[in-house]
Amino acid sequence: MALDPLFCGRIFVSVFFAILFLQSGFDKVTDWKGNLDWLSGHFASSPLRGMVPLMLGTVTIVELSAGLANAIGAVGMFIPSMPALGVLGLSLASLALVMLFFGQRVAKDYAGAATLACYFGVALLGFALWAARPA
Fold it and tell me: Do 69 and 85 contact (CB within 8 A), yes or no?
């Protein structure tokens, strides 16, 4: 099982998103003011400017949930009754990416949005790996 390419791919996608979103979420928690200040400037001329604290809180919760679900999902791959947690983690990661992508587009940060599209490609690959049947 451990050398099965689908199994390995699923594990690494889960670990990738666990690292990405746990680090990003913890950064937002530990440097709330810095993130709030930066985002307030980032959205200053957008229709979302008055919603920055709410958006930051929401994104932080979704990112931490995605990171935790992916971490548990990666471990769960080794427990026969728990592999579906990886799909939950991937779904939360995709939700976080869509939220971030929306914000970048509204803020007219097209380069930032394009970077997020690469991460979303990894998520789509993850869904394809979950949709494939094991050998």
Answer: yes
Domain locations along the chain: 16-131
* Contacts of residue 2, Cβ cutoff 8 Å, sequence gap at least 6: 8
Between CA 77 and CA 34, with CA 64 as vertex, the angle to 5 degrees is: 150
CA–CA distance, 5 with 1 (Å, rounded to integer): 9
| Both structure tokens of 46 | 């957008």
Report pTM.
0.92
Q: In whole angstroms, give the CA distance from residue 50 to residue 81.
A: 44
The shares of helix, strand and coil residues in the chain, as percent rounded to the nearest 5, are 80, 0, 20
Cβ neighbours for 15, distance < 8 A, ≥ 6 positions apart: 70, 71, 74
Q: How far is CA 82 from the centre of its chain?
A: 20
Q: pLDDT of 98-115, one tens digit each?
A: 999 999 999 999 999 999
